[in-house]
Design a protein that fits this description.
Shape: elongated
Helix content: over 70%
Distance between the termini: 7 Å
Number of strands: 0
Order of helices and strands: HHHHHHHHHHHHHH
Low-confidence stretches: none
Length: 306
């Protein structure tokens, strides 16, 4: 177990370092922030002094080493646009993104689990056809389109829900549905496939032969053994929601990390972009590690001894 944990931690560190290099280089391909920070008629001396103050006069590899050494202490620099520590700004926006991801994940699970289980139990019936059709429909509708459709129907036409904002339960409903719509489809297909394999296993057949209640066989035994693919997907999707919610956050004016990073990209605010992406990478790696460790709790037959 300890060897597995050490290997996974080393892999996570390598992934985070790689992500920091990639985002450091890509963020600088967006252009020179001096062109946005200073007016067009700024004197050359002011431009050069600003470049020195921001550390942009050094070679790219030197800039990365300085950034990495400071990042290890939690210092990602000062935001060019917001004029505050970049990590402080990102951490202030993180709770909104976590709230949105948690509600979206809960929405997807509450729909996907019954759809997937009932579709597998009643294989070939109208419930199965409905479940597969729903999964196909969900995967054919991107989140941003679902978000715009929700705004059109429930905000503009019906006036039931606010189209933007943050702070009340009503504000999170439509962004969570838009963000969790695609995972519902994928999770339904995974649960159905896993349940079909488990329902055909010998111990389920034996349970039915001795007269065990179908409800207990399906939900207590079959679903538990079929939950490992679901747990893997939940961990991956939760991490993906934290890092990929920027489209939904922009559509609904949700004050999360994704929207902040998008604004920072347009402002060429390198410290905020680097802090936001690197924090998301850390959360992604941590989520995957927790998923791996949870396998042994779900199925005692799985051990991480090697």
């Amino acid at each position: 177990m300890s060897g597995f944990l050490i290997r996974r931690l080393l892999q996570g560190v390598i992934s985070i370092v790689g992500a920091s290099m990639v985002i450091f280089i890509i963020s600088r391909l967006s252009g020179d922030p001096i062109l946005i920070l200073l007016p067009n008629d700024a004197p050359a001396s002011l431009i050069e002094q600003t470049r020195v103050n921001l550390g942009l006069d050094k070679p790219l590899w030197t800039q990365y080493l300085i950034f990495a050494s400071h990042a290890l202490t939690g210092d990602f620099g000062t935001s060019y646009r917001w004029q505050m520590p970049a990590i402080t700004l990102v951490l202030e926006r993180l709770p909104a993104t976590v709230l949105l991801a948690v509600v979206a994940l809960a929405f997807s699970v509450l729909l996907a689990v019954p759809f997937g289980v009932l579709s597998a139990v009643h294989r070939g019936s109208w419930l199965d056809t409905l479940g597969k059709g729903f999964a196909m429909l969900g995967q054919a509708m991107p989140g941003f389109w679902v978000g715009l459709l929700l705004i059109l129907v429930f905000s503009i036409e019906l006036g039931w829900l606010p189209a933007f904002g943050y702070g009340s339960p009503a504000n999170v409903i439509m962004p969570a549905i838009a963000l969790g719509w695609y995972p519902v489809a994928a999770q339904t297909r995974i649960i159905r496939s896993a349940m079909l394999d488990v329902l055909d296993s010998d111990y389920i057949r034996m349970g039915r032969a001795v007269g065990a209640p179908d409800r207990a066989l399906v939900w207590k035994y079959a679903f538990r053994n079929a939950a490992i693919p679901l747990v893997t997907m939940l961990g991956v999707y939760f991490a993906a929601m934290l890092g990929g919610a920027f489209v939904v956050e922009v559509i609904f004016a949700w004050p999360g990390v994704g929207r902040t990073v998008v604004e920072a990209v347009f402002a060429r605010d390198f410290p905020v972009v680097q802090a936001g992406v690197l924090l998301t990478s850390i959360l992604f790696v941590t989520s995957n590690l927790l998923v791996d460790l949870s396998y042994g709790l779900i199925d005692p037959r799985i051990r991480h001894d090697r």
